[in-house]
Amino acid sequence: MLEVRLLQGSLLKKVVEAMGELVVDANLDCSSTGVSLQAMDSSHVALVALMLRSEGFDHFRCDRSVSMGMNLANVSKLLRCSAPDDIVTLRADDDADTLTFMFESPKQDKISDFEMKLMDIQSEHLRIPEAEYQSIVRMPSQEFARICKDLSSIGDTVVISVTKEGVKFSTRGDIGNANIVCRQNTSVDKPEESTIIEMTEPVSLTFALRYMNSFTKATPLSNTVTISMSSDLPVVVEYKIAEMGYLRFYLAPKIEDEEDQS
């Protein structure tokens, strides 16, 4: 038996919408420690990893580990039937071929339930090794989203360069070039508005802006975004989810940059 209850039901809606542009079908893996999901985008360029720990739920029961295949567009449709302040419960019997979504209003004067058919999705689970990154940038998530959006009106790739002074986002296109620099600043009253850089050595890598803009769909989940880079590893763009977990996006750098470094 699986039964998980989330007081902030709108959080689930934001998580699904954040992944929806990249992931079509995916397995939701539930175990006693929490709920996780790992999926590649359709072109196998970006990897999405979600973790929601069991202690972050209002109620969490998972008698045995289960993997449920679902279409994210269908999940999104069902979650849109819930009000912003509804409590959401997900329930499935052992070996069930459906997942039940239950929405309760805060006063509990309205309860709706929707049953969704599960799918059989064959997917291999990739083990993502823990890595030490040469540069880690923490910055306001809205700022990062704005930069990616602005640069994509000029070019289709972004060069992210990190030095002790700051992080520089550059692009070039038919109409010209653009550079946006965010300097390290920790002296603001609100920590979520600061840009913090931890680095062992400078890094400069090129990425497809189309993917970066897809990642920024997760902006509503967190005030800050963490961008971890090393010259020989995929970038990790991470959004913390309240106190319960994270949504991470992995993207390999574009190849032409590697030629410059050889």
Automatic annotation (TrEMBL):
The keyword Nucleus applies. GO terms for molecular function: DNA binding; DNA polymerase processivity factor activity. Residues 1-124 form the Proliferating cell nuclear antigen PCNA N-terminal domain. GO terms for cellular component: PCNA complex. GO terms for biological process: leading strand elongation; mismatch repair; regulation of DNA replication; translesion synthesis. Residues 128-254 form the Proliferating cell nuclear antigen PCNA C-terminal domain. Pfam families: PCNA_C (PF02747), PCNA_N (PF00705). It is found in: Nucleus. It comes from the Eukaryota. Keywords: DNA replication, DNA-binding, Nucleus. The keyword Ribosomal protein does not apply. Its main location: nucleus. This protein is an auxiliary protein of DNA polymerase delta and is involved in the control of eukaryotic DNA replication by increasing the polymerase's processivity during elongation of the leading strand. This protein is an auxiliary protein of DNA polymerase delta and is involved in the control of eukaryotic DNA replication by increasing the polymerase's processibility during elongation of the leading strand. Belongs to the PCNA family. PANTHER family: PROLIFERATING CELL NUCLEAR ANTIGEN. This is DNA sliding clamp PCNA. The gene is PCNA.
